[in-house]
Amino acid sequence: MDQLDVRTKIGLVVVSASSVSELRYPKAAPPGVAFLTSRMMLAEGESIDALIEMESNAGRAVGELASAKVDSVAYCCTVSGALRGMEADRQFCQELEDQFGTPITSTMLAVAEALQHLGLKKIVVTTPYPDSHHVAERAYLQEAGIEPLIMKGMGLETAEGFAAVPPQEIFDFAMNRPSASSA
């Protein structure tokens, strides 16, 4: 039997209907990185109330991954992080990290910290979401000291819809937007 060459295990906490992270992350990772997943049920409709209900399962989902001895956890729900705001999102991750002893970040926190690390102050944002989601995302980025010059969503409203968009379509959508210099 072949021995697996796993050097690092990253836990992914994902929305129940999502398959984006599990399918795309391994393609971007170097050899030896394994991704283990735990899901949180998101009720039909994906309303704010449904997100709050989903997040009541965060401890269970992270606990499952911690029991598998992952080296870190990525909490992969962009909208819930945006709704919390940066400092509350950081606190949410820290509380889970303290409880389970495993480093944790969220999608929004990781993006904001990466942009800060790169020294980027002004950006253009394309998302799969409806434009109505951008209010919270804009506020989160502004809290991080980053000014979104343009935010344009593809208008998709379900995790299944997000997962169905081919990368080339996302690229084409982003490239066919007004330039940031006209913002």
Mind explaining what this structure looks like?
Helices cover 46% and strands 20% of the residues. With 183 residues, the chain is of the alpha/beta class. It has a single domain (8-177), classed as Rossmann fold, CATH 3.40.50. It has a four-stranded parallel β-sheet with strand order 2-1-3-4, sandwiched between helices. Strands 5-6 form a two-stranded parallel ribbon. It is globular, with a radius of gyration of 17 Å. The mean pLDDT is 90.
What is the element layout, followed by pairings?
Blueprint: E1 8-15, H1 20-28, E2 33-40, H2 48-55, H3 58-67, E3 72-76, H4 78-84, H5 86-100, E4 104-106, H6 107-117, E5 122-127, H7 134-143, E6 147-153, H8 159-164, H9 167-175
Parallel strand pairs: 1-2, 1-3, 3-4, 5-6
Helix pairs in contact: 4-7
Number of strands: 6
What profile does the largest beta sheet have? Answer: 4 strands, parallel
**Range of helix content:** 40-55%
Q: What is the third-level CATH name, the topology?
A: Rossmann fold
Please name the CATH architecture: 3-Layer(aba) Sandwich
Q: How are the strands of the biggest sheet laid out side by side?
A: 2-1-3-4
User: Roughly how many Å apart are the termini?
Assistant: 58 Å
Number of helices: 9
User: Average pLDDT, to the nearest integer?
Assistant: 90
Give the count of structural domains.
1
Supply the key terms.
183 residues, globular, Rossmann fold, single chain, alpha/beta
